[in-house]
Design goal:
alpha/beta; SDR_fam
């Protein structure tokens, strides 16, 4: 388990690569066997090539689901990560298709959904996981374009995809949004990111209320610090020392591995959570937050 003592100062080129993480992240533990909770289900996972999205994809496959994952269009390092996931899944005897897409645009999200439906004939689980963040210490220097881009990736894509997928969901199907503890703690150097994470939580609650009568559940996960490429590719680009002992300030004294997030997504995607909707699961190493 990664702890606060063996993550050293480092940086990566944005958007980052799992293959370049030092130390390597764990995406699924060797003793995770699965119990067929998602057999017959098809899951569309944005940002499923790396980090938390990759962990969700691997755990879903272990539970019998077929997975469609997205990665950033025209980004070679993300393509390599996505192909790793596809290879892993196929070695497990599962099915995975990968889709390069720019989720910031409605038309691309609509085309993605149509292509996934063509390839799999259905979608049962939508995981809005793709996200980005940028460090900024002074609102006066936060460029309008950067603010808009953070919203386009984190919020608009969630809206576009949920809207496109909803007509194809049925009773028992689910939407899961990846938010963040920062939607509650709101650190001053991540003002645009934190704002989008708060928006995701409210979107989760409102959409849940709107479609509850259809038997479709909508929930969110709000992770604390998790060891993913986004950290050295954003925090590390600003100052590699920000990655030193990443997550050491959490009450547990360490960041999480992506493998610790995957089972949460399985729980929310499966009938085990059949009486849970509009809620946010706080997987944050003991941080106390409201909501």
């Amino acid at each position: 388990m990664t702890n606060k003592f063996n993550i050293h100062a480092q940086k990566q080129e944005f958007p980052g690569s799992d293959a370049q993480l030092q130390p390597q992240a764990e995406f699924i533990s060797e003793d995770y066997l699965g119990s067929r909770k998602l057999v017959g289900k098809v899951a569309l996972i944005t940002g499923g090539d790396s980090g938390i999205g990759r962990a969700a994809a691997l755990h879903f496959v272990k539970e019998g689901a077929e997975v469609a994952i997205t990665y950033i269009k025209d980004c070679e390092m993300e393509k390599i990560d996505a192909e790793w996931v596809k290879s892993w899944v196929e070695n497990q005897g599962g099915t995975c298709r990968i889709y390069p897409v720019d989720l910031r645009y409605s038309e691309e999200c609509q085309n993605l959904v149509q292509q996934v439906l063509k390839d799999f004939s259905k979608i049962n689980i939508l995981v809005n996981n793709a996200g980005t963040q940028f460090i900024n210490e002074d609102l006066a220097t936060l460029e309008d374009e950067k603010w808009l881009d953070t919203f386009a990736v984190n919020v608009h894509s969630m809206f576009y995809l949920s809207k496109a997928v909803l007509p194809h969901l049925h009773e028992g199907d689910t939407i899961i949004n990846t938010s963040s503890v920062n939607g509650y703690l709101a650190p001053g150097n991540l003002i645009d990111y934190s704002t989008t994470k708060g928006a995701q939580i409210i979107f989760t609650r409102a959409l849940s209320n709107q479609i509850m009568n259809r038997g479709i559940r909508v929930n969110a996960v709000a992770p604390g610090p998790v060891w993913t490429p986004l950290q050295p590719a954003t925090l590390g680009q600003t100052d590699p020392q920000l990655v030193e002992n990443y997550g050491g300030g959490a009450p547990m004294g360490r960041c999480a591995q992506p493998s610790e997030m995957g089972p949460i997504f399985v729980f929310l995607a499966s009938s085990d959570s059949s009486y849970i909707t509009g809620q946010t699961v706080h997987a944050n190493g003991g941080m106390m937050v409201g909501g």
